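Milestone M4 deliverable, item 7.
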Amino acid sequence: MKGIFDTKRNSGYDDEIAVRYHFPKQYRAVAETLVGDRIIYREPQRNGGRRAYVATAKVVAVQDDPSRPGYAYAVVAEYQEFDEPVPFSQDGRYWETALLLVPDPSRVGAFLQGKSIRTIPESDFGAIVRAGLSETLAADNAIRLELDPKHVDDRTQELLDLPIQEQERRIEQILMNRKIREAGFRRKVCDAYDNRCAITGLRIVNGGGKSEAQAAHIWSVAEGGPDVVQNGIALSATVHWLFDRHLISLTDDYRILVSHNKVPSELRTLFAKQMDRIHLPADARLWPHPEYVARHRERFSSV
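Output delivered:
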């Protein structure tokens, strides 16, 4: 079985859904059955939610909240946002099988009361996640996201070539495929930055809509960083190389820091405007998260 975690904005819970989900004790038994398995996050309409499924993650542990008796955390990993929110129902039909069995559709909300953590069949999970990754898996986006035959191995290509229903059945293999995960991250980050290098300001888009800008992680995945736009920054290849090696970094107000004694002199012209703020997404909610920037800068300071 897989699961659903309902997540509300401004809920009062100590959530950071890319790494932890906070809940009261009545859900503990259900949450523990999901340890080692995957869940989908859903935003109900309450508190301004999108009434949609928005991301998936893997539950790796359930732990007591030491500061709030009667509450616990589901610790999650492999968090992945969907390309676009998947509406709670499509063409009047609910994705969750259990909701289709509610005799009166107007009572679905009442049926879900007290079920903020619930289990769903594998088939429901596969269908929702496949819908959530539809842009990443679309053949039209293959060149843009480097999921074309030139850039992927045979195993990845096999998954991409499957019909939709078979992709739903093998959705966990798709979620575990690093090349596909990177493609989804690249799409969201490059779209947020309008395919423009955040530091040089250059915007070059080649055939097939492929941007010359790359999606760099601020807090590396190898060290626990999530695949979310706020942990990404669009950079040209050379700047990406320097950023990954912590030879450049960012201040709290998004200005450039340069390790002048380690960056080759011929590259320093890239940072002539280092006192200016970098190019940022139009949507401020997608700007680099201060915590992730601080982690990167800490490594920069120790290089």
